[in-house]
Design goal:
- There is one protein chain.
- The chain is α+β, with helices and mostly antiparallel strands.
- It has a single domain, classed as 2-Layer Sandwich (Alpha-Beta Plaits).
- The protein contains two helices and five strands; from the N terminus they run E-H-E-E-H-E-E.
- It has a five-stranded antiparallel beta sheet, covered by helices on one side.
- The longest helix is centred in the N-terminal third of the chain and has 20 residues.
- The relative contact order is 0.25.
Amino acid sequence: MSEKFWLVVQYPLKSAKSSQRDHWLRDKVMEYLEISLADVNLGYVDGSDMGQCISDPKKYALNIFCVVTEEERSIALVKRVLKDSRLDYTRIKIATMPYGKEETYTLKYAYKKGVTDFSL
């Protein structure tokens, strides 16, 4: 059995009161990633959350959680699916953490250069 990872796709939100568009985005991203990850047998979508960031209560985010087996291939697939599907690819952060371990997420991709911080 290959090693598993948590992979989280994070979108910034404007407020704690999420809009209809935020809910639509969450549903579409989860749907597209579920299909894409299953098609290549890399993993599955494990859920999402929306609201205040734990690290900074003044910031809000949509987090979509996946469990994947091949970290680098999964990151590349997620980026390609979101870009090709036009699902706000230019606003995402992607971070990973070993599955089953209490560690912190490591930022693997950010929508713009110079962004180095990641937290839920």
